[in-house]
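Input (structure):
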C-alpha cells in the first residue's frame, strides 16, 4: 500500500467508501505496523503539543532567540488592548501561528508540519477555526489526519525543505496542509479539501528561503502567520465553490520545477534575498562577532 498523489488518495476514498481521515489513518498504521486507533491516539498527542506550543510561545520573551523577541506576546497584548484589525478569528490565527514559530525559535517543543521552520502554520490556522466551530478533539484529530494526507502526497512528489525548494516548499506546503484541514473542518468535500490545498500552494509559489544569519527567525516567524492566513483564505474560496483549476498534484510538480530553477542563494543559504540586504549582512556580522563564529 503506497499513496503517492492526491488523485490516488481521492480514488481510494471513493472506491472504498471511506473518508480521507480513515484512509490516512489506515495508511499510517500500515507504514508503522500498528493500527488506526494507535495512529489516532498519536495524533491526539500531537494536537496537545500544538496547543502547548501556542501557550508557550505567547509566554516566550525570546530568551533563547537571537532576533525575534516576544512576537506572540506582542500580538496577545495588542489584541487585548483592542489595537488590531480584522476581528477575533483573524487575530487568533496570527497570534497562534506567530506564537508557535516564536516558541520554535526559543528552542521550545513544536510539531514539524511539514518542517520546524513552518511549524506555526497548521496550528495557526486549524486551532482557531476549531475553536470558532466548537469542534471536539476527535474532529480536530480527523482534520489533522487530512493535513497529514496533504503532506504525504506533497512529500511524495516534491520537496518539503527550503534548502531544496525554497520557502514555498515549507510555508507553502504547510499552508496547503492547513487549508485542506480547515476545509474539512468546515464540512468541505474531499474535492474541496484538495481545491483548498491547491489554491493555498498556488498563492505561495516562488517564495524563496532567505533567513537572516542562517537563523529560523526572520522572516520565517512572520511568514508562518502570513501562510496561516493564506490557508484560511484558500479554504474559504474552495468552500465558496471557486475552482483550483490546476489539480493539487500538478501544483506540487510545478513547485518542484520552480524550486530547481531558484538559484542557490535563495535556497536557505542566507546569501540572497533578505539575507543579502545591507541590514541582513550587518546583522550577520554582528551575530558572528558576538558569538565568535568562524567563517
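Output (sequence):
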Amino acid at each position: 500500500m503506497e499513496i503517492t498523489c492526491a488523485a490516488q488518495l481521492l480514488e481510494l476514498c471513493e472506491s472504498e467508501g471511506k473518508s480521507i481521515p480513515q484512509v490516512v489513518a489506515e495508511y499510517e498504521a500500515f507504514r508503522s505496523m500498528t493500527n488506526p486507533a494507535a495512529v489516532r491516539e498519536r495524533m491526539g498527542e500531537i494536537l496537545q503539543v500544538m496547543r502547548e506550543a501556542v501557550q508557550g510561545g505567547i509566554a516566550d520573551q525570546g530568551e533563547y532567540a537571537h532576533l525575534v523577541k516576544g512576537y506572540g506576546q506582542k500580538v496577545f497584548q495588542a489584541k487585548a488592548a483592542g489595537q488590531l484589525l480584522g476581528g477575533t478569528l483573524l487575530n487568533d490565527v496570527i497570534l497562534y501561528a506567530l506564537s508557535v514559530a516564536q516558541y520554535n525559535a526559543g528552542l521550545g517543543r513544536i510539531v514539524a508540519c511539514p518542517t520546524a521552520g513552518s511549524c506555526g502554520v497548521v496550528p495557526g490556522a486549524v486551532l482557531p477555526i476549531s475553536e470558532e466551530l466548537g469542534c471536539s478533539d476527535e474532529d480536530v484529530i480527523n482534520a489533522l489526519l487530512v493535513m497529514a494526507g496533504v503532506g504525504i502526497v506533497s512529500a511524495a512528489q516534491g520537496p518539503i525543505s527550503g534548502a531544496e525548494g525554497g520557502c514555498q516548499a515549507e510555508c507553502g506546503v504547510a499552508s496547503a496542509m492547513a487549508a485542506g484541514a480547515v476545509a474539512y473542518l468546515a464540512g468541505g468535500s474531499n474535492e474541496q479539501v484538495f481545491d483548498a490545498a491547491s489554491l493555498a500552494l498556488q498563492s505561495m509559489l516562488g517564495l524563496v528561503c532567505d533567513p537572516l544569519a542562517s537563523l529560523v527567525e526572520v522572516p520565517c516567524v512572520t511568514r508562518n502567520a502570513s501562510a496561516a492566513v493564506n490557508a484560511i483564505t484558500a479554504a474559504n474560496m474552495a468552500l465558496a465553490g471557486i475552482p483550483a483549476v490546476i489539480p493539487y498534484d500538478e501544483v506540487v510538480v510545478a513547485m518542484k520545477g520552480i524550486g530547481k530553477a531558484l538559484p542557490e542563494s535563495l535556497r536557505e543559504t542566507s546569501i540572497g534575498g533578505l539575507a543579502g540586504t545591507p541590514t541582513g549582512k550587518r546583522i550577520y556580522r554582528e551575530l558572528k562577532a558576538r558569538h565568535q563564529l568562524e567563517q
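Notes: The chain has one domain: 6-291. DSSP finds 13 helices and no strands in the chain.
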